[in-house]
């Protein structure tokens, strides 16, 4: 009988079945060897110092892999720390009791690495015989070796899979130059690689100096998202204070994060750096390993994986920023800093499409400003550009913040006024007055300056719904 048990568990542990199935069959075989016992395998997590119930013959809800408890002050911790088995038996048992309760704890050690504990509970009439517990101790040695090898293989395979996924995602990320598309790709890739439920990306806005949310990935509702954003903001504060990273294993057990318990369990955050400056952060929330429905904790291995992924992201963001700047320079007039004709045309098509969709009016205006500087003036061409630069500034100031103005030729400025119900009546006089006031100011240093100002305008949809008709009408200058 003992030999049959050892042979059976040996076959179970040497099989090619997944580790979860082998552990379950081991527990079942132990129950057959010691009828009436409940056997459970708890694996030890060195990062969290928790015991996780990996397999058991108990009926457990939720899934066994989610049930865990801290190791501090437990018999399991004593067994594993001192690497010895412990047996608990009833001492004050009443004389008329028919059954005896016992518990056996066996440490699981492989390659000098503490893996966990096998816990056996027994309720029987005569108790478990010494020879049977000795046989059980031999089975535990086989179990320890099998678990050790399987966990090492599982960890290596998982790490290699994630590295391959990071390298593949990294190629796609680095080749993406559009910053908005890049943010979406980074968020989805990070969540998949890190097995996270949610991802938040913040980037530094150079205009405001604030780290604003540029992308969110996740299935949480709006109210839950706000909770995540609050936790993310607290993490960003820690990063900006000098923390190299933020790892929250369990909000319920970490004093600084208990306010978020019940909202999310775990978070991992790293800064995004460029030229030694923090340009943003990426944070992940709630880790859901494959085939599980309950969040587990991020750990130091996850941090190592995340760091590898972040290196790709930083490189990609650097490339995207350089590309965005070069594109802006292409679309900006060097003298005035206003957008060029190319940008103006693309925005006009966009605003027309928006006007059709929402049935909103749109005014297109052309303003021609021709400075006439006496030929006797030295370097008149340079002075024309100086005048145009000043006039471009007052035209921009005379418009609303969301109006579009561009330098579309040497002397012409194009303007798009979205939702301008009275744009053709009020904008032209306002702009013309601003130009003439500025000309008066310029004449203090350039007395003989004269400026010819002419306007043309067209309204959508009154003057046409086609961009060509609107351009033709607006180019009739008066």
Question: Which descriptors apply to this entry?
Answer:
alpha+beta, five-stranded antiparallel β-sheet, six-stranded antiparallel β-sheet, 478 residues, 11 helices, Beta-Lactamase, single chain, Alpha-Beta Plaits, 3 domains, 44% helix
Structure description:
This protein is of the alpha+beta class and 478 residues long. The chain has 3 domains: 2-149, GAF domain (Beta-Lactamase, 2-Layer Sandwich); 175-330, Beta-Lactamase (2-Layer Sandwich), CATH 3.30.450.40; 341-474, Alpha-Beta Plaits. It contains 11 helices and 15 strands. The protein has helices spanning 2-14, 19-33, 75-82, 130-174, 179-194, 222-240, 300-330, 341-358, 380-398, 423-442, 467-474; strands spanning 38-45, 50-56, 68-70, 86-89, 100-110, 113-124, 196-204, 211-217, 246-248, 267-274, 277-287, 362-372, 404-407, 412-418, 450-460. The mean pLDDT is 84.
Q: How many DSSP-defined strands?
A: 15
Oligomer: single chain
Proportion of residues in β-strands? 15-25%
Q: Which spans of ≥5 residues are poorly predicted at pLDDT below 50? A: none
CA-based shape: rod-shaped
Radius of gyration: 36 Å
In the CATH hierarchy, the third-tier topology of the largest domain is known as Beta-Lactamase
Q: What's the number of structural domains? A: 3
Brief write-up:
This protein is an alpha+beta fold. The chain has helices at 2-14, 19-33, 75-82, 130-174, 179-194, 222-240, 300-330, 341-358, 380-398, 423-442, 467-474, and strands spanning 38-45, 50-56, 68-70, 86-89, 100-110, 113-124, 196-204, 211-217, 246-248, 267-274, 277-287, 362-372, 404-407, 412-418, 450-460.
């Amino acid at each position: 009988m003992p030999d049959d048990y050892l042979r059976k568990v040996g076959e179970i542990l040497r099989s090619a079945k997944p580790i979860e199935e082998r552990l379950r069959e081991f527990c079942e075989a132990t129950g057959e060897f010691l009828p009436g016992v409940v056997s459970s395998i708890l694996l030890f997590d060195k990062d969290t110092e928790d015991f996780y119930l990996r397999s058991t013959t108990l009926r457990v809800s939720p899934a066994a892999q989610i049930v865990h408890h801290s190791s501090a002050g437990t018999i399991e911790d004593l067994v594993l720390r001192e690497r010895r088995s412990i047996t608990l038996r009833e001492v004050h048992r009443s004389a008329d009791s028919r059954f005896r309760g016992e518990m056996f704890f066996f440490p699981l050690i492989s390659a000098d690495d503490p893996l966990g504990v096998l816990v056996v509970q027994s309720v029987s009439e005569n108790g478990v015989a010494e020879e049977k517990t000795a046989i059980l101790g031999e089975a535990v040695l086989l179990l320890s070796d099998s678990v050790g090898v399987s966990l090492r293989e599982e960890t290596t395979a998982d790490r290699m899979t994630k590295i391959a996924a990071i390298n593949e995602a990294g190629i796609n990320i680095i080749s993406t130059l559009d910053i908005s598309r890049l943010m979406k790709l980074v968020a989805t890739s990070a969540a998949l690689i890190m097995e996270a439920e949610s991802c938040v990306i913040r980037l530094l806005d150079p205009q405001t100096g604030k780290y604003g949310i540029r992308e969110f990935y996740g299935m949480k509702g709006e109210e839950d998202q706000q909770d995540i954003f609050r936790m993310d903001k607290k993490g960003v504060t820690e990063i900006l204070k000098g923390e190299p990273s933020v790892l929250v294993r369990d909000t319920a057990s970490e004093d600084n994060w208990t306010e978020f318990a019940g909202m999310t369990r775990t978070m991992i955050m790293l800064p995004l750096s460029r030229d030694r400056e923090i340009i943003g952060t990426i944070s992940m929330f709630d880790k859901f390993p494959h085939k599980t429905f309950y969040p587990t904790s991020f750990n130091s291995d996850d941090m190592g994986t995340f760091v590898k992924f972040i290196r790709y992201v930083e490189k990609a963001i650097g490339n995207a920023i350089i590309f965005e700047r070069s594109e802006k320079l292409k679309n900006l007039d060097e003298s005035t800093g206003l957008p060029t004709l190319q940008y103006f045309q693309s925005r006009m098509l966009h605003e027309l499409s928006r006007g059709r969709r929402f049935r909103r009016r749109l005014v297109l205006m052309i303003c021609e400003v021709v400075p006439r500087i006496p030929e006797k003036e030295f370097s008149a061409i340079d002075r024309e550009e100086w005048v145009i630069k000043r006039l471009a500034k007052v035209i921009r100031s005379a418009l609303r913040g969301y109006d579009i103005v561009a330098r579309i030729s040497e002397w012409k400025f194009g303007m798009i006024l979205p939702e301008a119900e009275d744009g053709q009546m009020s904008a032209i006089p306002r702009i013309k007055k601003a130009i003439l006031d500025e000309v008066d100011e310029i004449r203090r240093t350039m007395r003989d300056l004269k400026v010819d100002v002419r306007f043309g305008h067209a309204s959508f949809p009154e003057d046409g719904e086609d961009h060509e008709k609107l351009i033709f009408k607006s180019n009739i200058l008066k």
